[in-house]
């Protein structure tokens, strides 16, 4: 069987296959002459030296426009299972899978991928998918192979995962694909890392030095597991497998498509002008809103805000937008009264993908009375004089604290003062409990470990100083209660 691709104009280069063997020819509009050249070439798989420029290392190529034949020259043709159909959808020819028993099985003679490869395809996922739906893979229930798989029932959020053969799995983060829209997906594995690209934009990169474990199953497209319940629902086109990690992924997509891929898989960042996120009336809150590194592709992100204090009162914040003109940055000046606040930003993509909501972002901060702020400022390390020798204080501020709620106030009976509970979460001090537990008001436990400085004095004292604890504090050291204090804005010391 011979296949003739579009013939170029005079002086251009064409590639013609006969028995799937690529032959390079240069000529004018002369199909017979070019076909004759192809017939002179021996039939078989390509050796490395025979690959046309730019196609080195191409192992499998299924255009999936009218069949599942391999156009890479390797004769690794696919076999259709179920009832997938070939159709042109939104201007691109591809194979349509209905999610119920449809897939393409790659010729089992395809060499194992090993430690370096690239797999790419165009994909148009439907809005509804089965749990753990697969785009491609050869994953087994015994923990071998690889798969591009949906994250459980999180529709169209796909992660690439592979087994290292030693009981471990290397995986990218899940990447959201837009439903009912063509996108280009590429997975590139080098001896050092594993990369996930969407529309040519790098979505994730993780260290990955181990090769892929060999699976007893053949590679599948539209399914990546031995169980058919994970079949993909949607269309796939232009499926390719390379035996090398491509250094560049450059699909034919618009700048808007790149921007949408990035925006759909990230959110804006919110940061406070004060590292402690504590302000006062003289220094009102200033919040910086940003997106990416400021050099994102052309596009506009609309921003709306909700600012709520602990009583539930809402303060109106004017909407805004981020664009390349502003470096994708926006500054909010918020003249708020004293209180504890949580600011939530709901960004959305404007332009061609208008209406696409991005992931929300939130930040908590406090506006305190002037006296309280001045007191908190004393928490920085300093020196004090005891007798004739200086003693350096050790600040216990920082983000190494843990916190857990105690709504029934049973922590003392359960000896919570001995160690953090299993459900304790990381937090920082100074800060407010509502940053970790936004709607909680009640008893909470804080823990942290530290090593006390050596005391240069015989029978020297250790002073534990708190600049403010709201509202009632009981303090234990090594499981022993050393004191308590009542009052939210007063500093106190325990000897």
Describe the overall structure:
With 495 residues, this protein is mainly beta. 5% of the residues lie in helices and 40% in strands. The chain contains three helices and 38 strands. Strands 4, 6, 7, 9, 15, 16, 17 and 19 form an eight-stranded antiparallel beta sheet that branches. Strands 5, 8, 10, 11, 12, 13, 14 and 18 form an eight-stranded antiparallel beta sheet that branches. Strands 21, 23, 24, 25, 27, 28 and 29 form a seven-stranded mixed beta sheet that branches. A hairpin with a 2-residue loop joins strand 36 and strand 37 (480-486). Residues 1-50 and 371-390 have low confidence and may be disordered.
Unreliable stretches covering 5 or more consecutive residues: 1-50, 371-390
H/I helix tally: 3
CA-based shape:
elongated
Computed Rg: 31 Å
- Amino- and carboxy-terminal Cα gap: 92 Å
Mean pLDDT: 82
Strand portion: 35-45%
Major sheet size, sense and barrel closure: 8 strands, antiparallel
Number of strands: 38
Query: Structural class per helix/strand content?
Result: mainly beta
Helix content: under 10%
